[in-house]
Amino acid sequence: MSTAQQQHNQREPVMFLGQTGAEQTRTVADLVEDIQALTTEIQELYCLDEIPWCVGYSGGKDSTATLQLVWNAIASLPPSKRTKTIHVITTDTLVENPIVSAWVRNSLKQMKLEAEAQKLPFQPHLLQPEAKETFWVGLIGKGYPAPRGKFRWCTERLKINPSNRFIRDAIRTNGETILVLGTRKAESTKRANRMKKMEAKRVRERLSPNMNLPNSLVYSPIEDWRNDEVWLYLMQWENPWRYSNKDLFSMYRGATADNECPLVVDTSTPSCGSSRFGCWVCTLVSHDKSLAAMIQNDEEKEWMQPLLDFRMELDAEENRERRDFRRRNGNVQLYERNLDGDISVEPIPGPYIKEAREYWLRRLLTIQTQIQRTAPAEMRDLTLITLEELSEIRRIWLEENHEFDDSLPRIYQEVTGEVFRDPRPGSDRALLGSDEWAVLEEICGDDAMHLELMAKLLDTERQYRTMARRNGIFEALEKCFETSSRSKEEAIANAHYKRDLKNAAEQGNIETVKQLTWASLKFPAQFGNDNLSSDRNH
Q1: Residue 251: predicted pLDDT
Q2: pLDDT of 442-464, one tens digit each?
């Protein structure tokens, strides 16, 4: 920032919430003074010990401002003091907004080049979830329904675990680590309260404990900054790894509904920092406003419309016909469902059934193929689902679900026109395949549970066939009967029987316990207790 700009802006006050929560007047001169104080603080903390630093970087405005502060502070140190590595960690969930994902990847490449050129100890790392924990392996492979508030199965797998694994490795190597984050109290009341709670537990000045990772301390240098101050810093102070903060601002502006973000030149200018970038498949929010705004505001981004359509279909009203009546472990679990004031005890919907999982796979591959044809040249290598994910999905369908018709390679070739090359060793060795599945379907007719049971029994035997010792095969076969030998009606009736029996026992109602026990013995089919009924005892 020029001297003339600083002198002009010193007369422009801004209202902000300080650490006490009370309104105070803060000028640009105050912000400049705070930046200078933070620079000294960062340098002193860095030189204090040998504890490695991990800077969390998402490519958004807060993490960019934080990394820029740290970068400039370390660059001002003598080369002899830049001895401690600073890891810049970014987590790619593999379902990020494509525009943001490309931005972050290119930023990390530029960061690496500039760190080497400037002889600075910054090492960028692009972290990803393990193949078995990705979004598509969960939804298409295991059949998990689209995430909801009460079943938020994605966040820990996609975001938390990859970064925690990296930090744990750093702790194991060095005994301790300092995690530098761009969290701010002004983001929300909930965030402010949580940060103040951690402040009270500080054992070192400015370093809060990380409750999820022992031996890890959290440093939040911009914790008291407001949105407008973040943008002012990014617009008036040059990005030290030579990546454009003005392009970052344009990306935020394009992600707002009215495509309007004022140019931040002083602290009286309102901010557009409320935009939120996240996973394009996210069903934990009512609408993906940033992706929709990008498409609305820029004709060149209309190629992303299929992503928005897919996300809306995932978020559509619950279609129970696509879901199993059992949980993934094969058990029927009941719950009380409120239907317009009437309470109905029903099974909790389980994972997506085979046809639904195949449908989602086909839709996703179709969109990926379409985007690779219609997207701008720089985005045509976009991969929505990786080969490793497809391989893991195929493994789950074959080995855990016993769906030996092996439909994934067929679907892949039908949609893409290419042969599926599975990287997993031995993945194409099979005794059972689509021909045997077709014969089994013909034998079982319309009895879906009979087909499932026969497939499980045959494939379980196949899995144990090559083992030198077949210990556990009888238990595995018995498990097949426990989960698949009853019809849907029988399994649900049995769940109601167990629920009623448990409730009667807990209430001490001996008479009801006797009646239920007697009835289940006299009329086993009515209560779903004929595990090996004659029509399935083959």
Answers
A1: 86
A2: 999 988 899 999 999 999 998 88
Amino acid at 421: R
Do 108 and 90 contact (CB within 8 A), yes or no?
yes
Q: What is the pLDDT of residues 466-476, one digit of tens each?
A: 788 888 899 99
User: Could you tell me if 215 and 171 are in contact, meaning their C-beta atoms sit under 8 angstroms apart?
Assistant: yes
pLDDT at 11 over 50: no
b/e code 439-463 from CB counts within 10 Å (16+ = b): ebeeebeeeebbbbbbbbbbbbeee
Residue among 85, 86, 99, 83 nearest 56 (CA): 86
Does position 268 have pLDDT exceeding 50, yes or no?
Answer: no
Least confident of 184-198, 480-494, 522-536: 522-536
Distances from the Cα of 9 to the Cα of 31, 61, 246, angstroms: 11, 22, 20
Tens-digit pLDDT profile for residues 202-248: 667 788 888 788 889 999 999 989 888 999 999 999 999 999 999 89
pLDDT at 274: 47
406 Ramachandran zone, left/alpha/beta (phi>0; psi -120 to 50): left
Q: φ, ψ for residue 54 (rounded to 5)?
A: -125, 115
- Written as one letter, the residue type at 201 is K
Tell me how far apart the alpha carbons of residues 507 and 7 are, in angstroms, rounded to a whole number: 78
DSSP H helices, 147-273, are 154-155, 161-174, 189-199, 227-236, 245-254
Read off the pLDDT of residues 507-517 as tens digits, 9 standing for 90 and up.
888 888 777 77
Tokens of 103: 């931005």
Residues constituting the chain: 538
Tell me how far CA of residue 410 lies from CA of 202, 361, 418, 431, 436, in angstroms.
57, 11, 10, 17, 15
Amino acid at 120: L
> How many helices and strands in the chain, by DSSP H and E?
20, 10
Going by their DSSP bridges, the two strands 13-17 and 23-27 should be labelled as antiparallel
What one-letter code names the amino acid at 405? D
Q: State how far the Cα of 8 lies from the Cα of 15, in Å rounded to an integer.
A: 17
The whole-model pTM stands at 0.84
Average pLDDT, the chain: 85
Q: Residue 307's closest CA among 378, 387, 372? A: 372
Query: Which of these, 222, 148, 212, 209, lies nearest to 183 by C-alpha position?
Result: 222
Q: Cα dihedral sign for 283, 285, 286, 291?
A: negative
- The SS3 of residue 530 is coil
DSSP state of 138: I
